[in-house]
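hey m, so remember when u said the tokens were messed up on ur end? i reran from scratch. heres the input so u can diff it against urs
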Amino acid sequence: MEFSAQQIAGLVGGTIEGNPEVKVNDFAKIEEGRPGCISFLANMKYAHYLYETKSSVVLVNKDFKVEGETSATLIRVDDAYETVAKLLTMVESMKPKRKGIDSLAFIDPSAKIGKDCYIGPFVAIAEGVEIGDGCVLHPHVTIGSNAKVGSNTEIYSNAVIYHDCKVGNNCILHAGCVIGADGFGFAPTPNGYEKIPQVGIVTIEDNVEIGANTCVDRSTMGSTYIREGVKLDNLVQIAHNDDIGRHTVMSAQVGVAGSTKIGEWCMFGGQVGVANHLTVADRTQAGAKAGIPNRIKKEGTTVQGMPAIEYRNFWKSSAIFKNLPELDKQIYQMQKELDELKSKLK
């Protein structure tokens, strides 16, 4: 597909500086630009690339000030990053979707498959499963008995949805993710640990994306919830009976222990850990590697560190921490001088 700068500006409501007739048919990072490509500039650390890029079109923010010559046609928009995301989504939606059921797929006769679905080779769909319209199931996907998948959901290879679990509309489940494995429930006995049956389910609402090899455990009773619009990165662990609030995002290797309720619009950096039976307020932000041991009550709190504390205190504490060896020497010397002074006074 090929578009002119004029057509793109019309689609995104932008204004053009340069040749409106220049054509593009691909995307490229600004530092790797090629003729016929469209790039974007949102982070000013990359601004110098604008004057050397070979891309034909570059999206920039309306308030960006050009400080040199560039061969690219500029399209000014309110938010260049947001605009390129919309363009990528639009182009992706134009690609034809595969349809049909591969002869090597296994589908139980009792399963219900919606219209215009694609079921790849070696997909296994158990009894009582319901798959909505327009779904794409890549090779080796496994759907357990009585599970339900909404419309226009895409599930990549080797993902597993256990029995009775529910996945909403317009979701993306990446390769190897596991939805509905048993929660980590064991009761200690004199002879070892006795398994507590996990008889609940997982409920994933609409417009959720779950990364590769991420695990969402089924609840002991009731349901583990991943609410609407949640985005989970690769290698995230959501334990049994958790409730992850709407539009919350979690980076790689986040771990949330059982029976914890995470608020809406929260943002967790990589390797954040959250203890069990907690409530975390809406719009909480946790920096990478933060360990959250206690409830967070105030909406909009930003924390970092282990145990997690208010981020400004964390950075002040970090500045002191790196000076501790020198401070220790000074304290030791002061103590020595104090002891000598006491001895003389006596």
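this time it looks ok to me. The longest helix spans residues 324-345. if urs says something different then somethings off w ur setup not the seq
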